[in-house]
Amino acid sequence: MLDGFRKRIGLAMAGKSPWGGGSNNGDDDGGSDGDSGGGASNGKGSKGGSKGNGPRNPWLPPGAGDSDGPRRSANIEDIFKNRGPEGPRRKGGGGGPRGPNFRFPQRPGGKSWFPVALVAIVGVGLLATSMHLIGPQEQAVVKTLGNYTRTLESGLQFSAPFPFETVDVEDVEGVRDIRIPGSDQQVKLILTGDQNLVDLSYIVRWNIKDLADFKFRLVAPEETVNEAAEAAMRAAIAEKDLDETFSGQGRAAIELDVRERMQRSLDSYRAGIRVLGVEIEKADPPAQVVDAFRDVQVAEQNADAARNQAQGYAQQVLAQAQGEAEAFDKVYEQYRLAPDVTRQRLYYETMERVLSETDKTIVEAEGVTPYLPLPEIRRRAQQASPATTVTAPEGQ
Asked: What stretches of the chain show up as alpha helix (H) in DSSP?
């Protein structure tokens, strides 16, 4: 290698090109050039000067520059045949680990395997970009030179190779969700129908209904779903009172209303999205008035308890009055049948009910000895002095 560099430097200093292409007159200068460039290998300076007009092309294989005839330029096979990992090989040099005369394998006819390998690589690439295995929950859109042409269903599908047709596979059955607001620290205040504010947090679940519309009608699908959900939720809450947003039945009605509003809105956009459901996670008053709101809730609960108690007492009194009225109706029916007997029976029943609750005994008949109310006397004596014992007179 150093010998070759030294010879080229000498030629450059002499004004000659180290690659040949000088004069073709075979004079003494040419002969001397031939001696300096090619004589190192064969010792025939004059002959080398007359044939090569300069040193041999280093990219040609050894012996290619020694034959008679005009010089030729090196082709791609000559360069690879005469080049090792360290640089161009010289005749008799080391040539690296592959040896000095390394060549690509050749076919039986003497031709190179390089075109065959190139065709095989291109064929495998075309086949790989033409076959598509689409999963059971997936679909794919096909674009021909950038324009949408068709939709591929699940299974093994074929298309034109890249770059004529490109295939974009998407999961259409998988459930996707969006949380509004994005984090628990954020606050989403919505105005209710009775001019109150409520802090709402909810989740929207959706999937793809039409893949072509989803891919080519929307620029940002998730942002579209987010905006549609917020608009539908604000419209639904604006028609409800604050108490309805906190109750379980009110929440269920709101969730159904929001889902229907979102689906109508997205269908009008031809978004290709199916809204699966809306779930309200949190419905609280604003943090600034949460204490006052709790006091109001306690007062409302107490009012509800008092109202329920009053309603229970009213129902009890009403039931008693209705029972007495039914009893009176039955007595009146008997009175119409036998007025005297019924009147006397009512008198006896009334006197029995009144006198059973008092200690006095009233006797109206003549010749009846009055009854000494010993129980009453004993009761009064016990109230006056618990230690005093009352003894009845003899003969009583």
From this structure: 2-13, 28-37, 39-42, 45-52, 76-81, 114-128, 211-216, 221-237, 242-246, 248-269, 290-337, 339-355, 374-384
